[in-house]
Design goal:
This protein is mostly helical. It has a domain of 141 residues. 79% of the residues lie in helices and 0% in strands. The chain contains 8 helices and no strands. α2 packs antiparallel against α6 and α5 packs antiparallel against α6.
């Protein structure tokens, strides 16, 4: 608590903007009435359709390959996050050197050692959150491969096929959502690193990240293609 007392009003305001942007956008893109209109929501229907198509096929080599690609992508991010976390922990141990380095930069540096450690902990917490999301997504994709291996063969509308397709599509959506949350943690982890320079940089980067995420999820050419193909 004494360490938190070193935070200035500008630090608290910037931190509030950071948390509001992250949690606010997470709710907006996942739980609001506009969620289904974004890139994440639009991909959900394709995953369910993939499940129906997969259950119609006798040979599922293509599906296994696609799931393997998903697992490889998530594994790459999970492994990369471990290195980032290790680097941040090392930076905490070398706070004095980092403090002298940031003192020579433009925006007045990172403050005292205790304040610098608080700022590094915010960056560290962002990537730790991302690591947990990536590893959970990885486990869910592994469970998805089990469901694919045990899947029956049938057509859309069969009593056995309908619930199984929804189960596969639902698990695929859950894994994909956690992967997206991990990616979002990367974006806001970069914003958190701006606090090392100045609280204004933290607040500004948080807003910029918010705008970038919104444009990519709701105003991108990729979304236009997905929605056009689904109409």
């Amino acid at each position: 608590m004494r360490a938190l007392q070193q935070l200035s009003t500008a630090d608290w305001l910037a931190l509030l903007v950071f948390l509001a942007c992250w949690t606010g956008y997470s709710w907006f893109s996942e739980h609001s009435r506009w969620a289904c209109k974004g890139l994440i929501g639009s991909s959900h229907s394709y995953r369910v359709e993939w499940a129906y198509r997969m259950l119609e096929r006798d040979v599922r080599v293509t599906d296994s390959t696609l799931i393997g690609n998903l697992v490889s992508s998530v594994s790459f991010y999970a492994n990369t996050t471990i290195y980032i976390i290790a680097g941040l922990v090392a930076a905490l141990g070398a706070a004095d050197r980092l403090l002298s380095f940031t003192a020579d930069l433009a925006f007045a540096g990172a403050g005292g050692r205790t304040l610098l450690e608080i700022k590094l902990l915010l960056v560290l917490a962002s990537f730790v959150y991302g690591y947990f999301k990536f590893t959970w997504a990885l486990r869910q994709f592994n469970l998805l491969s089990i469901l694919v291996g045990a899947a029956p063969i049938g057509q859309r509308g069969d009593p056995e096929i309908e619930p199984y397709a929804r189960r596969i599509g639902g698990l695929n959506n859950l894994a994909g959502d956690d992967f997206n949350r991990g990616i979002r943690a990367y974006y806001f982890g970069l914003a958190a690193s701006g606090w090392l320079l100045n609280p204004i940089v933290l607040g500004l980067l948080s807003v910029i990240i918010l705008v970038v995420l919104y444009r990519r999820d709701y105003r991108s050419a990729t979304l236009a293609v997905l929605r056009r193909e689904s109409q």
